[in-house]
Amino acid sequence: MKSLDSGRILLKRIAAAAALAATALAAPLEVSAQAKNFDLQSVFALQVPSIGQSPVKWAERVALMTNNEVRIKVHGAGEFVPPFEVFGAVSNGSIPMGFDWIGYWANKIPVANLVGSMPFGPDPELFLGWMFRGGGLEIIQKAYDPHNVKIIPCHLVVPEAGGWFNKEIKTVNDLKGLKMRIAGLGAKAMEKLGASVQLVPAGEIFVSLERGRIEAAEFSAPQLDLGLGLQKIAKHYYFPGWHQPASWDSIIINMGVWKSLPVRHQNAMIEACYANITYNWFDQINAQIEAIEKIEQAGVKVQRFPEPVLQALRKAATEVMQEEAAKDPVFKEAYQSLTAYVKRVGRWSDLQALPRVN
To answer: The domain containing residue 340 runs over which residues?
Structure first.
């Protein structure tokens, strides 16, 4: 009798174990059946340091936060459409999602220029505060709504370098006739000072500078610039990045796709961007000085623009922004909001500034 009872107990345990195993196997299948799959194309190659992998890490965070209910496959520049056509493809629904530098869409959305690169604008901390607590995102979204696009700021870029030059910049006159790759409002300011500017995709900057199509180029911070190999062909590397003290890359989502998502998935995408911003911030800060040292080791002269050149650039940039504000109401609203925010909230930074040790 005892052995019979033991056999029954064993059978029950086996049945229970089988049921548990079946449940474990069924769980992934259930999630898989509910999963939403989307494609995302970046304007950058995935191999570009920091920003190349930024949308990949965001997609991983979204999958984690949604228990794999939202799966996003990230594609590099040009896999579906050319880099500068990503916004239009997301707008018309050809691609559900994209990753960009906001300033690339300034021809369609003037305020994108301000958010992408405000010359002599706020530092990253102030820009972050304005975006999410100072009303910035609400203003920007108004400009994106007519294009059927949801924007989620998702990568805060550290201050950029002033650019790579094959000749030394000693006076403002050295900018006249200079063929330079530079984007955004900074490009317009350079034009005011006589430069000949053009926008070259990131993947073509090296060749353009090497072959003399351009004589100078700005792209990003030292970490990213180093990855492009510009230290192999340029002689001078200038600071500060007056044209872009901070800037934003973003996730853009077709509005129809966005509205089709449950609120918990929308919230996960937003929270994943918050995490992305934090991760990329400390990653970028850590990488810049090492990149500068490697650039110097390559024989490039690292230096600051002369103060009179910076003052001339500031004057030209202010004129540009005032002109742009007069042409577009959303640009004007954002410009006034951001400058007021910097003046008011920036007082905190001024009060806390410690004396520098020479």
So the answer is: 163-245+290-346
Residues 6+ away with beta carbon under 8 Å from 115: 102, 103, 136, 140, 247, 248, 334
Q: Where are the alpha helices (DSSP H) in the chain?
A: 2-34, 54-65, 86-92, 111-116, 124-133, 136-144, 184-192, 205-210, 222-228, 255-260, 263-297, 307-327, 329-352
Is pTM beyond 0.90 here? no
Which tokens is 217 given? 């180029």
Round the CA-based radius of gyration of the chain to a whole number and report it.
25
pLDDT means over runs of 10, the chain (358 residues) = 37 36 36 77 90 96 97 97 96 98 93 94 95 97 98 95 96 97 93 94 89 93 90 96 95 98 98 96 88 96 97 97 97 97 93 84
Residue 358 pLDDT? 66
Choosing from 236, 271, 286, the residue where a domain stops is 286
The CA distances from residue 175 to 170, 222, 306, in Å, are 9, 22, 12
CATH classification of the domain holding 197: 3.40.190.10
